[in-house]
């Protein structure tokens, strides 16, 4: 599908937006330091004018400096005139501070008006879906025809419109084999939902279905309850080319929160119990919940010393929101400071001097609240940030504490049960496993609907599409559409730029209500390989950083669930972590140490070539939807095409489990024909664009499954040859050519080669095989082995056979 002019204009307008400063100023970014605390984002509702901004730096060192400053960078980078363009989530003060430090901060890609439009669009879609679900839908037949084309092959074409227009409405067609035959004797097929410019048109087959006999009637039934039977007529128009297969797709029509997404995969498992099941992951998340809080004092200027805040012991949803605090001037002289509690109402009677003037300081009030057994059972009091607590507090009316969470009641505040949808005809561990997972980062709204789309395609195409049947029959597929449910709920309902989960590990000086958009753990920095605690770059140990790696490796239930899945099901050999945005296709290594750019060990030559070969197939599948081409410069190891991401999940699985892991960044730049420029799409593009991204990268996920199946079925042994690449009087260089991605093991001392022998290495990044140099005539022994374990000539490296490659390489006249 092509990019619409309306969307292109919207992006072009976004590029021209000035930086709007509409809210009160907050502290600016700290100066360069190893790990400064970033500034506040004062309100979950107003979000302090936060926008997704362009920043241009001279080179990668500039990107590293931004990371070190704790700047919230998107997973996006591209070369431009003058250096490298990256995107950052910035408040007005953050943008100002970066400019003051010499950074080239440019215009906004998206701001909160885009967020509001997305939510309005989503509410409309949900309302429509809810209305559709309350009653049986009405089906209106548009066409039902059979025709003959090519070699007298018959085809069936049906078009039907339903009154239930949401993507969860599924229509199935069943037809007979001619007069007097059973109504279902001809066959059955699921119909595709056809939309144009974002609008539902009708259901149809993507291409006419080949049939063996001309039917007389076709019956269309809906999962909403509607049903209709219509006659099938012969079409006398122009013949159409027969399709090679029938395939159903396009099952998402709005952004979904984790509650919806999880409900969707549970419903799918119930609808297709023979080929799918739900796997409950063992570690529940902390939940979409927070302690309730209230702040007394403004926390700025001279008022800083008199500012404090209180935090409920219970979560807001479990009683914390019912706690209230009042600061009362007793109106009498020489009154002592005291605390009274009535139920959940806490009253602080402030102290006064002989003239009746309040004398209680913030420190004294905090101490009194924490020292009262009745009050401290309900709440904890803390000084505000760097406050000395020496300022006198002012009386304040009764104030209810609040957790500030805005999600509707349909979103549970309890720990979330993460689930994986397991798809496969044989789910006993005997088939090659593939792990597809989405939304490690909360604000990446396109990714969960990508995983949902892939699940729908696999299950709904199984009965009629032979290629899908092969994938489901020959693989063991695990799909987790939302790895970060708590953070994603928060992103959708409270602060759309939330990246992390919702756990608050901050101490009191960073845990006041104004910091609530800066809490949480970056799940894709919380793994145990190449982590910030091992000295790798790209993670943070500061609790308010958007790349905060957590208090320890694998501290979070979400990341432990990912690891558990790969340990519980050791047949998992492939994984795909789907992120957004920028249009990338990447693989390990994903982290390096800044000093000397010391990387995690690069994959061996055979594996690297396998990654590259597979990318051709997978990215061709992505391109097949609407022509999006992932750029060569955005394809390769993470550290080569993006940046260092310490403690990411793909590295965890590759280095600890040998799982071939990829990373997608959906949301490739959209080319605007009018301006002849590529436009970045952001984390939450208008759904029209988000839908297209989900469709094309679901294609890519299917492509990964096809690669995995080819691996599972690979019985072809590699074939290699020794190639002399250069000679001098005193030395000869040579290498090996292999007819497929494979590793070559060799010896130069006449011994039998084994898996412990030297392995042919890479000459350098994207430079192909290294050349081996010898200074005397040498008999070289070698064999090749591909990633599926097929060994050249069926040689047994651990046996006694001699059927390895042998060749004498001469050097000058030396013996």
UniProtKB/TrEMBL annotation:
The UniProt record lists the keyword Cytoplasm: no
Region (Disordered): 796-815
Entry-linked Pfam families: CHB_HEX_C_1, Peptidase_M14
GO biological process: proteolysis
Signal peptide segment: 1-30
Needed cofactors: Zn(2+)
Tree of life domain: Bacteria
InterPro entries listed in its UniProt record: GH29D-like_dom (IPR059177), Peptidase_M14 (IPR000834)
PANTHER family associated with the record: PROTEASE FAMILY M14 CARBOXYPEPTIDASE A,B, SLL0236 PROTEIN
Family: Belongs to the peptidase M14 family.
Protein name: Zinc carboxypeptidase
Species this chain originates from: Microbispora catharanthi
